[in-house]
Give the backbone structure.
Amino acid sequence: MSAATDASERSDAGAARLASRDVAPVAAGLVPFAVAIGAASAANGLSFVEAVLTPAMLLAGSAQLAAVDLWGSGGGLVLVAGTAIVINLRLALYSAGLRRWFEAAPRWQQLLLACTLIDQSFLLCEERFATARDLRWRRTYYVTVSAWLVAVFLLSQAIGHVAGSGVPDGLGLHLAGPLVFAGMLARTVRRGHHLVAAVVAGAVLVATAGLPGGLALPVAAIAGVVAASARSPEPRP
Amino acid sequence: MSALVVFAVAGIGTYLLRASMVLVGDRLASTDWLEARLALVGPAVLACLVTAGLVVSDGSVRLPGLAEVTAVVAAIVIVRRTGNLGHALFVGLPLYWAAAAIGLA
């Protein structure tokens, strides 16, 4: 992704085009993961309607996968919903980013835009919005990215539910998500303190992998941010 | 209790997290301090997602296969050089298949 947008990309249509181009590989990486969640939904007894509605209500793959497993093994409301919410704690960090991007927008719009805030949309927008300041442009870019991601996520889960366990393991599709995230990481790490945040977060994730309820990810991410902040009192963005 | 009710509650809680900083509103002033830390969230979360995909399985740490490591390292290198995220998949997956085919999995 180039750091700046050229003249043809400064219009609304340009923002939508650019967003579609940026999101394509990310959405492709989302497909195998969403298909796997759909298959897990079927295996845990969710009907097709439930398998389509639950991702629409949560829009959070890791949390949904954990929640579906817990539901399938007889977990109740507090355990299932509580686990999903704990896994999604990182979204509060993203929320601060969303508020900053759309600071000039009315509060109701910010609340509406927050509905589709997920890992991929946060990471793409955080990178692109560093050089794009116009509110209208940002809104178009964000909505386009979100629309693609939500559509691909829901459709892939529906396919996964229908296909069930018929998806062959040998294709290595489990690796699609990590590959795309690794690529995003390669683009995101631009300074020393970014590298510190990444290395510490990865190491803490391994050390805390056994934590219950998916707590490891938010704990590790916060540890990475704290460690990188401690290295330099006011790290430049 | 219906699965839909349980997931609706989880969805409402998740939405409140997504909207939390908007709801806090003006009490959270936009500061350089906050902005600097937000710039670190991306690398930290991405490193967690890559690590989780490679070495964590069902809450336990596992040793990743050489084919997986090769593919991920190649994805990092190629995207670092080209800036094109699509290359992560188009280079990484075939490399994984090739490495797995010669027994590195």
